């Protein structure tokens, strides 16, 4: 196991332990807990010096300060950083699952994980660091829809967003807020000698609320969509809604009908086709026609 990956795993384990109900964790208990969890991952033994380096790295990368209270004889996460730890713990958990479970770890004997890995995993901690300290970044970006054309980009990084098991960077590129797939970033460098003033007024939830997934194409109008399914498909859509705007109109043994409000992007159409066994597009009619054309072309290819 690489040193960098092993260090990230220890950081995850430390944050997991310190974010629990137990407010103060003794030095001995934390050492034993981390040692046991790392042993499960075939990691090397840990000692206090290793943990102290991890504490410093956690603060440097993620802005979470781990303190020691002499009176209570225990470590704790600084209360000012309490809101940050859930956000970064989720990032670390995803990173851990995507990269740690393979033939080098005995975890694969009882956890069957999807083997999707970002092509350049080191981007995630570097991007967090650049965002936290407001440093521009420079990288080569692969434009998949342009036949793999590569362009050099210098951007001001603002947020990392996860969607459908992929990570995306929200950054200002020549004054415009754009989205970059982390999978398509190569040769990333932080420009430590430069800083910028981060725009803290971006309403991220508002930015994506009318879109399916990460792409918010504002030139496409928000529309009311009505979809009908049978009860079996309905049971899946109740447990995993298509979109946060999903509203159930009919739910009985014959039909499951929903209403949505969003932009009809290509990603949304692909999501409809993924569960189209019993789908009927009630409205709008142009979406119904678009789905029908996809079916017709598929029949021609596979007839």
From TrEMBL:
Domain of life of the native organism: Bacteria
Domain WYL: from-to ranges: 124-188
PROSITE patterns linked to this entry: WYL (PS52050)
Pfam families reported in the protein's UniProt record: WYL
Name under which the protein is recorded: WYL domain-containing protein
């Amino acid at each position: 196991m690489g040193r960098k990956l092993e260090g990230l795993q220890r950081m995850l384990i430390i944050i997991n332990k310190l974010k629990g109900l137990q407010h103060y964790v003794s030095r001995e208990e934390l050492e034993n807990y981390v040692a046991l969890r790392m042993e499960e991952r075939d990691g090397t033994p840990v000692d206090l010096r290793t943990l102290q380096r991890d504490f410093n790295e956690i603060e440097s990368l993620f802005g979470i300060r781990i303190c020691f209270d002499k009176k209570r004889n225990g470590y704790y996460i600084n209360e000012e950083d309490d809101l940050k730890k859930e956000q970064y713990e989720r990032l670390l958990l995803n990173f851990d699952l995507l990269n740690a479970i393979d033939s080098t770890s005995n975890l694969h004997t009882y956890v069957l994980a999807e083997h999707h890995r970002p092509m350049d995993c080191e981007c995630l901690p570097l991007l967090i660091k650049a965002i936290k300290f407001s440093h521009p970044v420079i990288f080569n970006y692969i434009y998949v829809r342009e036949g793999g054309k590569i362009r050099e980009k210098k951007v001001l990084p603002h947020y990392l967003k996860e969607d459908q098991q992929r990570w995306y960077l929200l950054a200002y590129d020549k004054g415009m807020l754009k989205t970059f797939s982390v999978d398509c970033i190569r040769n990333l460098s932080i420009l430590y000698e430069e800083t910028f003033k981060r725009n803290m007024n971006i309403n991220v939830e508002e930015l994506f609320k009318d879109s399916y997934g990460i792409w918010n194409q504002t030139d496409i109008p928000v529309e009311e969509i009505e979809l009908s399914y049978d009860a079996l498909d309905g049971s899946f859509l109740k447990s995993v809604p298509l979109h946060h705007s999903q509203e159930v109109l009919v739910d009985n043994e014959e039909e499951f009908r929903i209403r949505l409000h969003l932009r009809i992007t290509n990603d949304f159409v692909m999501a409809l086709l993924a569960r189209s066994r019993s789908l009927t597009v009630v409205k709008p009619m142009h979406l119904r026609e678009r789905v029908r054309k996809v079916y017709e072309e598929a029949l021609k290819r596979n007839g």
